[in-house]
Amino acid sequence: MACEHETMTDPTRFTVIIPAHNEAAVIERCLETALAGAPEGHETQFIVAANGCTDRTVELARAAAPDALVLDLAEGSKPLAMNAANAVALYYPRIYLDADVQCDYESLSSLARVLRNPGVMAGSPALKMDLSRCSPAMKSYYRVWQTQPYVTRNMVGSGCFGLSRAGQEEIGPFPPITGDDIWVHSRFREEERASVSSSENGGDVSFTVSPPRKVSDQIRVETRRRLGNQELMKAYPSPHYSGSNSASDLGLALKRGCSLVDVAIYLAIKAAVRLRVALVKRQQKTIVWERDETARNI
Question: What is the pTM of this model?
Answer without folding.
Answer: 0.89
